[in-house]
Design goal:
It contains 13 helices and eleven strands. It is of the alpha/beta class. The strands form four sheets. It has a five-stranded parallel sheet. It has a two-stranded antiparallel sheet with strand order 5-6. Strands 8-11 form a two-stranded antiparallel sheet. It is globular and about 55 Å long. Helix 9 packs across helix 10. The site of glycine has 6 residues, from loops.
């Protein structure tokens, strides 16, 4: 891995500044001329850490024509991408995701952000990485639970965009590498159509309206993938309630989540609704949902992909 990664770095014909997650640095012994090692995880996404990284890069002499290479999980990529978006009014950056979740989500699409005491990802910018380098050997050291975090997103891609991918996961007929590459292709295709998240990109939020609210209600102690898995079930049940999807598809989803041993959460829907109202994706005090016609196909009406659902409807979902 180290030599392939070094070859990749050498192929960047500009001065590079690496920001590497400590865990990865310790495991893989990454060395480079300009390197900053920082912790990873959700707690790193703070204003203070942004300032720390900015000052450290400035102290090392970074200039506008240089490239920042972010090596780590999704949280580190979100933070470093946001640093890159504002430092010297914008510096190019490259993502090197080291978790399954980051490979299929945060490393693509240019959503960068930090958290605030008022909620997750409330300060950020769209800043597209100029490249994203995947090395599957990073997954060799990925804990089982982190694998599930990524699988929740992969299952989401199957649900909203690619029935064949969903079936390959169900039948265990595709290799992990194939699944990752297909998921990245799907995200790239959707982001290319709607980089600023005004239409079709909303489908990537399937399961996340409920998922983010569950994370909030659990003070972010509930892992993202587990929250999203419960969100996928709820939002598919809502799609059935709205007359779009069949209960057979919900049974298939539940069976698949059981196969991977996702723990599904039970929750109070009234509390959930008040948490959902705080989400930045809401508009005009209403909570919007992506709905499924069937596995692999979302509801689209006149170019819109998410729809306001009254609270009484949400409360009635079993
Ligand atoms: N993670 C959802 C998106 O990038 O749009």
């Amino acid at each position: 891995m180290q030599s392939r990664f070094s070859d990749f770095l050498a192929s960047i014909k500009r001065k590079t500044y690496l920001v590497v997650e400590k865990k990865i640095h310790d495991l893989y012994g990454i060395h480079a001329d300009n390197i900053l090692v920082i912790p990873g995880g959700e707690l790193v996404k703070t204003r203070q850490m942004k300032e720390f990284v900015e000052d450290a890069l400035l102290a090392k002499g970074i200039s506008k024509s240089d490239v920042i290479v972010a090596v780590g999980g999704g949280s580190l990529l979100d933070l470093v991408g946001f640093v890159a978006s504002t430092l010297l009014r914008g510096i190019d950056f490259i993502t090197v995701p080291t978790t399954l979740l980051a490979m299929v989500d945060a490393s693509i699409g240019g959503k960068t952000a930090i958290n605030t005491p008022y909620g997750k990802n409330l300060i950020g910018a769209f800043h597209m990485p100029i490249d994203s380098y995947v090395d599957f050997t990073f997954l060799d050291t990925l804990p089982e639970e982190e694998f599930l975090m990524g699988m929740a997103e992969v299952i989401k891609y199957g649900l909203v965009f690619d029935k064949q991918l969903f079936e390959e996961i169900e039948n265990k007929s595709a290799s992990l590498e194939k699944i990752v590459l297909r998921s990245r292709e799907i995200k790239q295709e959707i982001v290319a159509k709607d980089p600023m998240d005004k239409g079709i990109r909303h489908i990537l939020n399937f399961g996340h309206t409920v998922g983010h609210a569950l994370e909030f209600l659990h003070n972010y102690e509930l892992k993202h993938g587990f929250a999203v898995a419960s969100g996928l079930v709820f939002e598919l049940a809502l799609s059935i309630h709205e007359g779009y999807c069949s209960s057979y598809d919900l049974d298939r989803l539940k069976e698949l989540l059981q196969m991977y041993k996702f723990p599904l959460q039970s929750f109070c829907k009234k509390l959930l609704y008040s948490a959902m109202l705080k989400d930045k994706k809401n508009r005009d005090g209403e909570v919007y949902f992506v709905l499924l016609h069937e596995i692999g196909r979302c509801v689209e009406k006149q170019g819109k992909y998410s729809f306001p659902i009254p609270k009484e409807t949400l409360w009635s979902i079993a």
